[in-house]
Amino acid sequence: MVARGVSASSVDVIARQAGCQRAAVYTYFGSKEGLALAVLEESIGRWAHAAAVETSGGTAHPADEGWERMLVEVWSGLRENDPGRERLAAMLDQARAGLVGASANRRTARIQAVLELIQGFGETEAAGPVAASRTEPASAVPGITGRGSPTIKEVAERAGVSFKSVSRVMNDHPHVTAELRAKVESAMRELGYAPNAAARTLRSASSPTVGLVIDDSEAFPYASDIIRGAQDAATGLGKVLVITYVDDAPGSREQILDHLRQWQVEGVAYASPHHQVIDTTELLPFSPLVLVNCVPSVPGPAFAVPGERDAGYMATKVLLEAGHSRIGLISGPPEFPASHLRREGYLAALAEANIRPDPALQLTGDWWQEGGAVAARELMRLPHPPTGIFAMNDWMAMGVYDELRSAGLRIPEDISVVGFDNREVVAAHMRPRLTTVALPYYEMGRWAIEALHHRNTVGGQFSCNMVVRDSVAQMVTS
Asked: How far apart are CA 166 and CA 372, in angstroms?
């Protein structure tokens, strides 16, 4: 048995040197089969040890209930010709022998429960000595039945079918009849049985869980739109969305990524607060991986970014169509691709209108309100100030509003303003309400989860939309 080229003996060595369980090593290397067998081996080994040395005292380990159900479902999902079934069968036989060999006076309810559980895996009745050794009815066994978490065996009894038949229904066997499926599903509903999602993950080639990593949430006011789109897509595809956040704290990123590996997520969508180029080196162990609002430093993962250049063109065009020819531009910091791309759109719109760009009208801000105010002050001090201003985000547009009001100017009667981002809590509540560009965060979030599901390797640019409100007025020519 191997895990991406790593032998079982190598896994043992790695686990010993790292001081971790073998299951953690298999998780890291992404071996579903190895992880399943390691988990089951550990569980069965603990049960057998408890029977031999009587350390359990008949009391369930806190994690046992979940592992027991997982054991049943992983085993039921293994076909006769599946890799690992022979080894797993040998492990079960060894555990059965150890449990049956326990003397009657040391045969606790816990041992009886495990015996009954393992007994069902063979899909045949157990040998006489095992059946004869029972001292309590199954309903009295703590942690197995009568615990509010029904087993497959109980579903089979309620439906009046075999253990194997329930297994086939749960695993979507192609030869299950509609009548059998109806019986089993009815019994599951009556008992309140819910299949163990972790077990399904272990025995399948993919997980129903996808991860969404939000980078620097404090600087990411639009994360909720990405999350909403991702959640809608995940719900539609029948998947569970695991949302995590990373920040600049030491070890934050490594810890989050390690947690996602342990979850065995189907794939990861990584969302950046700014349209930027990122190093994906530490993200590459995840496959598939998609990026939202950022691009990789080297070709590889699919990505989704806003169509920044076209958006800059649209924002400028709104002012041009209102008759403005001297349009001030307040860019973001030069290290961000968005700043350059939006400026390219601004220049393209001016060129289309046969307007020569004036460098004095093009200033650089810092994405914040004060930076917008400082730039607006400088623009209005020009011998020929602009009649319209395009600020590259709504925060800087707020600063423009502050400065223009301080100078006694009215918006839009004296000067028109266009923002960018359409941050609703800002743009829709400014007075006058701000005309701005809406970024496609919802659409990109939705695309990310669908791309993970369909294994898309192609992303690209998503169109932005103009949101026309009240901050732009038609120029009045004398």
From this structure: 66
Could you check whether the bond before residue 412 is cis, i.e. omega within 30 degrees of 0? yes
Retrieve residue 310's tokens: 């076209």
420 vs 390: CA distance, rounded Å: 8
The token pair that represents 362 in the structure block = 């093009």
224 pLDDT band, cuts 50/70/90, is: confident
Interhelix angle 163-170/178-191, rounded to 10 degrees, is 90
**pLDDT of 138:** 29
- Tokens at 132, concatenated: 């004869």
- What does the alpha-carbon distance between residue 211 and residue 292 come to, in Å, rounded to a whole number? 13
Distance CA 108, CA 52 (A): 11
Query: What number of CA atoms fall less than 13 Å from residue 11's CA on the CB side?
Result: 23
Bridge partner residues of 304 (DSSP): 292, 460
- Cβ-count burial of 254 within 10 angstroms (0-12 exposed, 13-18 middle, 19+ buried)? exposed
CB distance 362 to 302 below 8 Å: no
Is the separation of the CB atoms in 181 and 199 below 8 Å? no
Separation of alpha carbons 304 and 166, rounded Å? 43
Q: Any idea where the domains of the chain sit in the sequence?
A: 31-143, 205-307+443-451, 308-440
The rounded distance, in Å, linking the Cα atoms of 14 and 25 is 7
Collect all residues with Cβ–Cβ distance below 8 Å to 340 and sequence separation of at least 6: 334
Report pTM.
Answer: 0.59
Q: Is 209 helix (H, G, I), strand (E, B) or coil?
A: strand
Distance from chain centroid for Cα 402 = 40
3-class state of residue 439 by DSSP:
coil
Element (H, E) at 153: helix 152-159
- Would you state the CATH architecture of domain 205-307+443-451? 3-Layer(aba) Sandwich (3.40)
Helix 64-77 and helix 163-170: axis angle, to 10°?
80
* CA 191/CA 166 separation, integer angstroms: 14
Can you give the pLDDT at residue 352? 97
Other residues' Cβ atoms within 10 Å of the Cβ of residue 31 = 21
For residues 355 and 217, the model is more confident at 355
Backbone φ and ψ of 291, nearest 5°: -115, 140
468: which residues sit within 8 A by CB, 6+ positions away?
Answer: 318, 435
Looking at residue 354, its pLDDT comes to 97
- The correct answer on CATH 3.40.50.2300 for the domain covering 308-440 is yes
Hey, do 205-307+443-451 and 308-440 end up sharing a CATH topology, with the first three levels equal? Answer: yes
